[in-house]
Specification:
Blueprint: E1 24-28, E2 33-36, H1 51-65, E3 73-77, H2 83-93, E4 98-103, H3 111-119, E5 125-130, H4 139-148, E6 159-165, H5 177-182, H6 186-198, E7 202-206, H7 211-224, H8 233-244, H9 249-262
Parallel strand pairs: 1-4, 3-6, 3-7, 4-5, 5-6
Antiparallel strand pairs: 1-2
Amino acid sequence: MAVLLPDLPTRPAKAAADRETPRRYLWRSNEGKLVRGSGTALPLELLLGVEEQKQRLIENTRRFAEGLAAHHALLWGARGTGKSSLVKSVHALFADSLSLIGILPNDLSVLGTLFDALEALAPNRFILFLDDIALDDGDDYHTLKVTLDGGVSEVPANCLIYTTSNRRHITDRHATETESARALRPEEVVEDKVSLADRFGLSLGFYPLTRDIYLEAVLAYWQTAGLPEDKDFHAEAEKFSRLRGGLSGRVALQFVRDYAARQGKPFPF
């Protein structure tokens, strides 16, 4: 299968000043090509409650951008806690020297072919972003495991994999009855599934926010939106979180976006 590449740079080049398209792309399986991504990355200062994760991913990405050894990264944890946003925001810091390519969970079979195409574009460097991965014991599971097996040997030196998942081990840790029946030692099936996550040199956990940090996040988005002071916004934000069933950065963003719309105010994110 041939891979059609868009206007990927043939040498390191400064990204366009427009933040809307900071060298971000998406693989479209139905078209067999990469297309330019859209949307704006959140400023890193708006991602609260993930300071350690933020610094570790920035440092790892900086090393990769500078041609140094870097780890494939797994960002795992609760929904809406900023995993995907952090990947895109960190990439925006290094968009003058890195491209980000999004791969959907059901398109993992393209990885090998895509690696061949991207390796030919060295010294340009690429982060392959596998977002919201949750694998069973099927072809996609084996594709990713073989790709990562043996460290970085299966991945070109100018490519790095960043993955997000709601599961710490990406896969279900329990062996099915069929798998247990086939195995000489059923516990080996579980060990095999867990070993996939171990192939990522950098593993970052994300957790629901505390009430105080959630309200800090609401205030940060509130101020970014230029909304007027409102003595009731804390109470409304807490009510909104109860209706949404949790405290997270995503819920904070959704609340302020919703509030701004009700006030007839534009919101930048």
